Amino acid sequence: MAVVIESVVWEPNKSVYILLFISCVFSIFCLPIKAVANALDHAPSASFLRFQRSFLLLYALSSVEEGLWGVFGEYELAYYGLNKEQMLSLLCGGYAVSLFIGSFLGILSDLVGHKKLCLLFYMLHLFVSLCKIFIGTPTIWVASICLSLASSIFSFGFETWMVVEHDKLGPRQDSLTDMFWLMTFFESASFIGSQFLANYLIDGNVNKNITSMWKEAVLLAVVAIIYVTRGWKEDPRTAAFKDYRISFIGHVINDKRIWLLSWAQACVHFSIAAFWILWAPTIVADGREVSLGLIYPCFLASKMLGSTVFPWLIHGPLVVRMEEYLLYAFTVMGIALSIVAYDYQEIGVLVTLFCLFHACMGVVLPSLARLRTMYVPNEVRGGMMSLSLVPANAALLFFLFLRGYYQFIGNSTIISFAALGLFSAAGCMYTLRKWGKQLHQSKHNL
Fold first, then answer.
1. All domains of the chain in start order, with CATH
2. Which family does the record assign (predicted)?
3. What CA–CA distances, in Å, run from 32 to 24, 29, 392, 427?
4. Which residues 6+ apart lie within 8 Å of 189 measured at CB?
5. For 133-180, what is each residue's pLDDT tens digit?
6. Strand boundaries in 344-415, DSSP class E
7. pTM flag (> 0.85)
8. H-only helix segments in 284-318
9. Rounded to whole angstroms, how far apart are CA atoms 74 and 276?
10. Is 42 helix (H, G, I), strand (E, B) or coil?
């Protein structure tokens, strides 16, 4: 008599979703007393509240647009008949475009206006969606190039635009700090929403219903373009490239603090990209069966929870410098990835480590944005942010070549380098904290 061995598909416990949701709600509605008191004593103007709501709505819409293309990933490419090697070539091509073109879009944004670059983000998504609907397979490489450029714009364009528009309204810096963590929160929530939207549109049949997802992307892009062109105004830029270059060299190149911030941002970008490339192969190693679609929301919910911790660190009962808690956050993230890279782990342990990684990421992203506001002038913020991603994109392209084409390194090696980068980012925060204390002591002595 034959023996039938039933395979068990690993899924996270449903109580995890409930716990993360309740934790986020509790963290938001029980904000520190200092934050509530500041909000009551310095109530923002009606114009700022309209700006805040409008921008967060636009950013959420943009995040859904950006996240919609990453839901199915290689399943969509397999729909076109691409094999693993072709998918790898497509991925390398995307990072090459981000490296050689996307890295300079921030400078263009500072020169011509951030609104125009954000409109380009929607135009790229609209173009790709229409091409996939009406042309199909021949647009794969074009789509990869356009979406890579769109992702580059998404990484800096909306934040830079928000900071510039915020300063025009003149509210306090506390409100800008709140905008940063709210952007991280809304981005993660929108990515989860894009997964539900894509699955609803596909309805279990990718081959039959995939065009419905592209049509929805067209609709979102058109709505966003109309919303931006009619509802947002931006002063025309008149700065010449020569003046911009002088300002960039004076404020960015000659400031060592910005170099440290740029390196930390590059390490964060590399670790995030490496994670999203390798998390699924790591979890399903040795033929383990896992419901990846149910794990994905856990990561983003953890990131949402981490972003709600940010106001507690800024306005909480214990005053902690951003550089100090960032040092610990980067260290924890590096340790989490080091454990994954060093040793084989059970699925539950891996998911826990990855959730911890994303929870810390939710703290790190708004904190780095706040530090950029402290050190980087608005007129060169976009160029600084896009150029800081050059080392990360170059490293990703290099490791993909070594791993994919030459089989020279393993996935664990890439994760190890991501962990080393995070430890070096912690070193950058330690140096910034040290310099800040020295500056404070010198002013106190005077």
1. 47-237 (1.20.1250.20), 239-438 (1.20.1250.20)
2. Belongs to the major facilitator superfamily. Phosphate:H(+) symporter (TC 2.A.1.9) family.
3. 14, 9, 36, 29
4. 60, 300, 304
5. 887 655 778 888 999 999 999 999 999 999 988 888 776 667 888 889
6. none
7. yes
8. 292-315
9. 12
10. coil
